[in-house]
């Protein structure tokens, strides 16, 4: 099983700032098999990025993903109020698929 | 509109059985893998397993193998998650979700159900 560790656990930022979230895998994850999700309180997760860097339908371009091998990054260039949420990475290169433990982006 | 609509919240006692549902619409149900994801109160996301409704090929996480059963009914375009004997530790929100691309076994989840809250308490 591939373990995903996200850092930091909590990111305290102001609107307009840049957010950089990290996801590190215990084994090599193909760049085609890494996704990022956003989850707000009381809501289902929403797909942001798949295949490391491809934005899902309707996702604004302030969200971008990068990385390869075992190190992946989600960047939000200019935080807007609706971006404060919990973010999860997920690998789907093998079974079981696994999620990271999440990074909470909170308003400073 | 592509959507997954899940059944309503459940309150059960330990030892009882339960089957929750996830109805797909707006797309070709038999051609996309559907999975289930658990989220315990205040916790993160856990991948439970997936099913391909076209032929009922099913894969489970080792953490859930033998504890739950995933199934699908093509005629009603509905996927199911069931327990034969619930435990208090099964208390959680359960989401169904669909793979992004038709037929892709290795894929992210792009469409999610609204979630079904299952509470198990004596």
| Radius of gyration of chain B, CA atoms, in whole angstroms | 14 Å
- What does the largest sheet of chain A look like? 7 strands, mixed
The profile of the biggest β sheet of chain B is: 7 strands, mixed
What is the strand content of chain A? over 45%
Arithmetic mean pLDDT of chain B:
97
- Residue share in helices of chain B? under 10%
Descriptive notes:
The complex is a heterodimer of chains A (108) and B (122). Chain A has 108 residues and is mainly β. In chain A, 0% of the residues lie in helices and 49% in strands. Chain A has strands at residues 4-7, 10-13, 19-25, 34-39, 46-50, 54-55, 63-68, 71-76, 86-91, 98-99, 103-107. In chain A, strands 2, 4, 5, 6, 9, 10 and 11 form a 7-stranded mixed sheet that branches. A 4-stranded antiparallel sheet of chain A has the order 1-3-8-7, with no helix packed on it. In chain A, strand 9 (86-91) and strand 10 form a beta hairpin. Chain A is globular. Chain B has 122 residues and is mainly beta. In chain B, 0% of the residues lie in helices and 50% in strands. Chain B has strands at residues 3-6, 10-12, 18-25, 34-39, 45-52, 57-60, 69-73, 78-83, 92-99, 109-112, 116-120. In chain B, strands 2, 4, 5, 6, 9, 10 and 11 form a 7-stranded mixed sheet that branches. Chain B has a 4-stranded antiparallel sheet with strand order 1-3-8-7, with no helix packed on it. In chain B, strand 4 (34-39) and strand 5 (45-52) form a beta hairpin. Chain B is globular. The termini of chain B are far apart. The model of chain B has no long low-confidence stretch (mean pLDDT 97). Chains A and B meet through strand 4, strand 5 and strand 10 of A and strand 5 and strand 10 of B.
Task: Offer a quick outline of the entry.
The complex is a heterodimer of chains A (108) and B (122). Chain A is mainly beta and 108 residues long.
